Amino acid sequence: MGLASRHSPRTFMASAAIRPTIANTRNIQAKALLRSALSVRQPSRLQGYSSMVLAPAAQQKASSSETATLACGCFWSPDAKFAKLDGVLSTRVGYTGGSSPDPTYNSVCSGDGHTEAVKVEFNPEQLPYDGLLKVFFKEHDPTLSKGKPQYKSAIWYHTEQQKEVAEQMIKEISSKSSKPVATDLAPATHWTDAEDYHQNYYHKSGM
Known about the structure:
Elements: H1 3-6, H2 9-53, H3 57-62, E1 66-72, H4 76-83, E2 88-96, H5 105-109, E3 115-122, H6 129-139, E4 153-157, H7 160-176, E5 184-187, E6 191-193, H8 201-205
Parallel strand pairs: 4-5
Antiparallel strand pairs: 1-3, 1-4, 2-3, 2-6
Helix pairs in contact: 6-7
């Protein structure tokens, strides 16, 4: 008998349908093996890349920065002075030390208990906290009492170490002065940024 007689049309069609199915199965298996191989190799590359993305300059800067909050009269002049120091990352002027939750320049001038202050972010590796305080005490006479809280001399410490450094420096100044140091020392408390026109005032005014 001939080939046509050995295979019926139905049998021939079935075998023809099986061949693509086998080919598809092999393709699927090959793709699965490829994905498996890539999943083994990719993590090492992706992990290295992720470590670079998750360590931007801003995070590195934040890990080596501290905040100091200081007041020595009108905040315009000390703000400009601190901003020029090597190691200072940024400065903001604002109000702190009072009890009203939303102080404004007008309310502070009216005697709401808040003080004009400067918040300084600095790198302690470049500018130690005691170095910043030396500039702070040189910027004004800490033995003079301003009367109302708006312009008083004050240090708000953010850590126990800052407290100890400030206490030691106040003690040293007091030992060399015939008048007592009027600088208040207290833990950092609620802070409110001053209005935009107060920020970086001397630079904006060309002073």
